[in-house]
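Protocol step 4 of 5: obtain the predicted structure for the target chain.
Materials: sequence only (see below). No template structures provided, no constraints applied. The aim of this step is simply to have a reference model before the mutagenesis design in step 5. Sequence pasted as it appears in the construct record:
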Amino acid sequence: MNDQWNLSIKQFKNKWLQRLTSSKDGIYAEYLENYQNIEYYGEISIGTPPQTFYVIFDTGSPYLWIPSKMCDSSDLACQLHHKYDSSKSSTYKPNGALFYVKYGTGIASGFLSSDCVHIGSLNIVDQTFGEVTHQPGQVFINFHFDGIMGMGFQQSSQNSNPTPIFLNMIEQHLVDKPVFSVYLNLNEDKTTSGEIMFGGIDDKYYTGDLTYSDVVSEEYWMIKIDG
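Step 4 output (structure tokens):
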């Protein structure tokens, strides 16, 4: 990993010590690091004992994926980031189904596995995720995060239909309400660059009353706007 990446992670850990992931009555808050108002990423861990990774929380996709130790040595994006090693986890469960996801700017592929996922004090068991062995092109090479945690709707027609991690939180009765909320701060120097909350909403980040709108379809968090 390059010096800039290591410096960013060091700064992240220093801020992390100032604001640890907190939980209260089924509500969990995860601190996010802000890199140039482009990447907002947080720390998770997978396996037993835990292996640490940094992910962005993507509302436009449902899949969790992490680079795999089994990726090819020629895959530069993989080699420059933390990699999941299933042989070091006692809670790993093989799946083996093919995994593939295409974003607007990149592709990630590999195979599915299952393991425990930890987000602060929040522990999700038997979470199916993608072990990515191939990230073609230049897209993921310079990103500060290792992988992506999808917060979107489940897509039954792709990747053997793995359950999204937030739906697993709900089904495993880990969160107080079936709600997640996101706060993004454009000021990188603030202690709280951003936060994602599972199971509730932090009212210190807004004023007035919340307005609710129906989702147009269960594919994306998309609403209708008139005007």
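Step 4 remarks: The chain has one domain: 3-205. Residues 14-20 have pLDDT under 50 and may be disordered.
Proceed to step 5.
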